[in-house]
Amino acid sequence: MPAPVIVWFRQDLRLADNPALSLAAASGAPVIPLFVLEEGGRPLGGASRWWLHHALARLAGSLAALGSPLVLRRGEPAAVLDALIAETGADTVLWNRRYEPDAVAVDSAIKAGLRERGLTVRSHNAALLFEPWEIRNKSGDPFRVFTPFWRACLGAPPPPRPLPAPVSLTSPAKPVTGDALDGWGLPPTKPDWAGGLREAWVPGEAAAREGLLDFLDGPVATYGGDRDRPGIDGTSRLSPHLRFGEIGPRQVWHAARHAADARPGAAPGVDAFLREIGWREFSVHLLHANPGLPDTPLDPRFAAFPWTDDAAAAGAWRRGRTGYPIVDAGMRQLWETGWMHNRVRMIAASFLIKDLLQPWQTGEAWFWDTLVDADAANNAAGWQWVAGCGADAAPFFRVFNPILQGEKFDPDGAYVRRFVPELAKLPDAWIHKPWQAPPAVLCAAGVTIGRDYPAPIIDHALARDRALAAFKAVKGEG
Ligand code: FAD
């Protein structure tokens, strides 16, 4: 019997298009699938812990069906791997790469250490269409502007076709023990606030594949316009599946291209959708080139930005009690379901940063804790983009008006009515500015401002002037 091969799962919780797993299966050697609950690094947020629990439960079921159960261990990955190698006599360790700076440091040290001891270690790409070192500008540097980046991606040879899931795995001669998933206590219990997450999501590889196919069968055709309408289910909702690697971007790419060939009318929607997959790719490449992205502004001028520290205002924002319905609907959607529509993420983030002058890192941390798709690259890049200090970012002086944004992108108020039910009976004309509604309209809708729904915590016009003045000071024009 050849020595076992360890496949170390991390952000690739799937069987299909998993190069590390496929290579292990093809070796014919016994395969030990491993997941390590790591100590060190940034702790996962609450919503991510909930997702991880269910993703691991499903992955464990699929691996057991193939013949080799998932082994769960907790600790420093280097020590966990050392112990497992000593126990089993494994001579090979395979994994798919990750790109967060602290994870890269951990993985590089482990790879060097194991190789020094004569083990075979191989890492693969399962998370990206292109590796960060494959897409470079003419000077050989990473791109900092999205459009030429995406053009370069589209001009490169297409990403390889996804690998099929292995049909079976050889199990190790002696069963390998591990922790019980329930013992990790990943989902919340006291209190159990995950009811909305359970209603909104089915984690796992099968649900990810189904979600992709459903999206490509229907909404993708009108994605170009609908993707900005939070009241419509017009986007794929694949983000948590992509975050945990229950589906990979190569699978998305090839399935989407196939859908465009089969249904030419859907081609513009497919292109627009793949462009967003491109933004995900761009964020990871940015993080890889700028390890400080999660907490340090890429534009160094912003290090001196005169942020205010207003715990009450930040608390109202977190709870969805700012008095601006589109912002509050977004923040409540986030709290209830662990996800927020992209358009509303931009509006809510702009409100925190520009209307309330709170540091973008405050918002990044809240999203990190509450999003099921919380991702080091996308989250930080999103916040820096809105703040105006990121790569290819929205200029700081472009301050979103939460009333106009609501009226434009949620014209019938469907989104606000769903997540701010106390305003549900207001007519469309007032749903995004209830404090301006005539008393008779408010009375007919059963709304008393200040009692049923808060008055705006800040006047947007004044807040905008304050933000622009603060920005001028940073730019040295004050
Ligand atoms: P779709 O519109 O169906 O897009 C398909 C996929 O493309 C998404 O699943 C996602 O992987 C990727 N994508 C889409 N839009 C973006 C974008 N603007 N930037 C990068 N990738 C994108 N996305 C995360 O996955 N994790 C985060 O932590 C995260 N934080 C964000 C914070 C802020 C302040 C902002 C403005 C955006 C953030 N995004 C984040 C990006 C985006 O909002 C979500 O990816 C998107 O809403 C997910 O919904 P979907 O899967 O239906 O997207």
Task: Using brief descriptors, characterize the structure shown.
single chain; 478 residues; mainly alpha; five-stranded parallel sheet; 5 strands; 6% strand; binds flavin-adenine dinucleotide
Word description of this protein:
This protein has a five-stranded parallel beta sheet with strand order 3-2-1-4-5, sandwiched between helices. It has 20 helices and five strands. The protein is 48% helix and 6% strand. The mean pLDDT is 96. The protein has helices at residues 19-27, 46-66, 77-88, 101-116, 146-155, 195-200, 205-217, 223-226, 239-243, 249-262, 267-289, 311-319, 325-337, 342-355, 360-370, 376-387, 402-409, 414-419, 439-445, 460-474, and strands at 5-9, 31-38, 71-75, 92-96, 120-124. Helix 11 packs across helix 16 and helix 14 (342-355) crosses helix 16 (376-387). The longest helix is centred in the middle third of the chain and has 23 residues, at 267-289. The protein is mainly α and 478 residues long. Strand 4, helix 4 and strand 5 form a beta-alpha-beta unit. Bound molecules: flavin-adenine dinucleotide (FAD). Flavin-adenine dinucleotide is lined by residues 227, 235-239, 242-243, 276-277, 279-280, 283, 342, 345-346, 349, 367, 371, 373-375, 378-379, 382-383, 386.
